[in-house]
Amino acid sequence: MKTDRSIAHLPHGIALAVTLLSSAAAVPQPNILFILADDMSYRDLSCFGQQRYRTPHLDSLAMQGVRFTQAYSAAPESAPSRCSLITGLHTGHSSVRINSSARGQDNLLDADLTIAEVLKANGYHTAFTGKWGIGLQGTEGVPYKQGFDYCFGFYDQTEAHTYLPEYLYENDRKVYYPQNKGFDMESRYDYRGNRPHNTYDANGKLYVKELEDPYGYAFSENEIENAAIGFLKRHHATDKGKPFFLYYATQLPHGPVITDDIGEMAQPDSICQLTREWAAMVIKLDRFVGRLVAQLKTTGEYDNTVIFFASDNGYSMCGYTERGNGPHWPDDPWLQNKGPFSGGKFSAREGGLRIPFFVHCPARFRPRVVSNTVWLPDFFPTAARLSGISEEEMPKTDGLSLLPLLESGEWEGHPHLYFSRGMEQSVRIGPFSAYRPHREASMQLYLVEEDTYTKHNLAFMYPDVVEQVEAIMDTSFTPHPWYWTPDESPQQYNLKRQRARDTGNVLPVYRPNGIKRFPWEKRKEGNEYSNTE
Asked: Which pLDDT value is given to residue 521?
């Protein structure tokens, strides 16, 4: 079991670096705050082009920070993206490769080295609040076994669909919310006709009619936000002078859509309520970011805090409306928030992978807009370097430290980025984006900087690039006993599912608010593959 977090249990290079740092005067280690939005669209923020509302707090951070215009997630869905963020490994060989393996919702392993462990061993006070999604309670993947001193929120990604939970986790104990008992979560999954399921009073407050006290609910995002602020206050009171790492992985604006206060989005009522609720959820996140920044300024820690902001995957909002996700992932007609990309969540295409991403610390980095290709696995080596780990002592990951790019603008860049989901594979290499839905299909190749919608397949014009990309796709993944790998057919993957059942390896499924079956479980009962969100 990976229970001892001492320096001796880290790789030798990191252990040596920590020892040297502890005995030498150095530049003060910065605090590190990573804000991870859930399913945020590329153009949900006004600084990325949203016109229907403003997000002033996030806009301010982005405009005073280094904003990336060609940023990628590591996966087109939640769990593998979060795994890659925390471990720095891509989906070809990470412990979590898809939302659900053949046996269910899989998890990080004891053998995984997380950035929280590296930072903790290097003197950081570490905390996670929000949606974890890469380790169920009772497994080795829970955050308090992966380097976090304090944890609060959802450990299971599907239970995080609700905003009125019956319980959340604080470290290894459940925090119960009996006032949410009876919340009708199942109806919120019914998007037929885009009918609204939530009621807001004349002041914009959520009124949950099925509860004994319609206003007495506990709203999960408020609980998570308070836990994050509480951590910062306790840290300042008891560990002042020691750096912190706070990983705030909000649920917002993941659906089914609901907010405790619809605010300015109460109007215009001629616009679909589901659309307005989504917008209100983004605004709610923006306001809490303002609270976080204010707290850092109150304690004098703002100038020495590096703030990262990103979303976990590409466009998904259409999946919480009657429009649905694939095969077209239609944009919202009012918000127009998808961005100029094809595909969306659950697709290894540009629309499933492109994300808003920026880094903010005006005291260290000159504000500017950067067009270099970056992705979420870059966070691990960047945070490690910020903490004082040298380049020579860095553990091997699929990311590159962004520090040279942030500090001077000079950066070697990635030779390529590799993405996969089941049989799908894609590669970003130089100006090209390559995609194939399965290994028997012809390669598609696009000059993605000028053809962001990937409408013009140029594979016939660049056979050398196609050959190079095929070699990358064929060699960038390793076998796995439970995940669907690109060299397997649906039938072969179905055999893994059967083996999981036959050998008693099926993992438990947790559903929010006592619902019996998710809609996709009902639609795909017995099918070879289904999403978990």
From this structure: 79
Q: Which of 292, 297, 298, 299 is nearest to 236 (CA)?
A: 299
At residue 170, the pLDDT reads 98
Q: Give the model's confidence band at 519: pLDDT under 50 very low, under 70 low, under 90 confident, else very high.
A: confident
- How far is Cα 376 from Cα 355, in angstroms, rounded to an integer? 10
Which distant-in-sequence residues (6+ apart) come within 8 Å of 15 by Cβ? 7, 8, 121
**How many whole angstroms separate alpha carbon 520 and alpha carbon 533?**
8
Predicted TM-score (pTM) above 0.85: yes
End-to-end CA distance of the chain: 30
Q: Retrieve residue 502's tokens.
A: 């036959």
Instruction: List the beta bridge partners of residue 174.
Output: 169
Amino acid at 421: R
Residue 35 φ/ψ, nearest 5 degrees: -105, 115
Which pLDDT tens digit goes with each residue over 469-511? 999 999 999 999 999 999 999 999 999 999 999 999 999 999 9
- Cβ–Cβ under 8 Å, residues 514 and 180: no
3-state secondary structure 30-48: CEEEEEEECCCCCCCCHHH
Q: Residue 263's pLDDT is what?
A: 97
Q: What is the pLDDT of residue 524?
A: 62
Q: DSSP letter at 194?
A: G
Q: Would you say residue 297 has pLDDT above 60?
A: yes
Backbone angles phi, psi at 128, to 5 degrees: -125, 135
CB 174 within 8 A of CB 168: yes
Nearest to 169 by CA among 213, 138, 146, 208: 138
Tokens of 347: 């697709």
How far from the centroid of its chain's Cα atoms is residue 210's Cα?
32
Q: For the residues of 401-415, what is the DSSP string, one character each?
A: --HHHHHTS-----S
E strand residue ranges, 112-265 = 125-131, 150-154, 167-170, 173-176, 199-200, 206-207, 244-249
Q: Which residues contact 203 (CB under 8 A, 6 or more apart)?
A: none
SS3 3: coil
Strands in 424-429's sheet, in edge-to-edge order, are 417-421, 424-429, 432-436, 444-447
- pLDDT band at residue 529, thresholds of 50, 70 and 90? very low
**What pLDDT, in 10s, does the model give residues 336-359?**
999 999 999 999 999 999 999 999
DSSP letters for 265-308: GG--TTS-HHHHHHHHHHHHHHHHHHHHHHHHHHTT-STTEEEE
Say whether 491 sits in a helix, a strand or coil. Answer: helix
Segment 219-241 shows an average pLDDT of: 96
pLDDT at 22: 43
Helix segments in 112-269, DSSP class H: 115-121, 220-238
Q: Which two tokens stand for residue 414?
A: 């990635």
Question: H or E stretch including 71?
Answer: strand 66-72
As a 3-state breakdown, the chain gives helix, strand, coil percent values, each rounded to 5, of 30, 15, 50
Q: Is 85 exposed, middle or buried (0-12, 13-18, 19+ CB in 10 A)?
A: buried
* Amino acid occupying residue 4: D
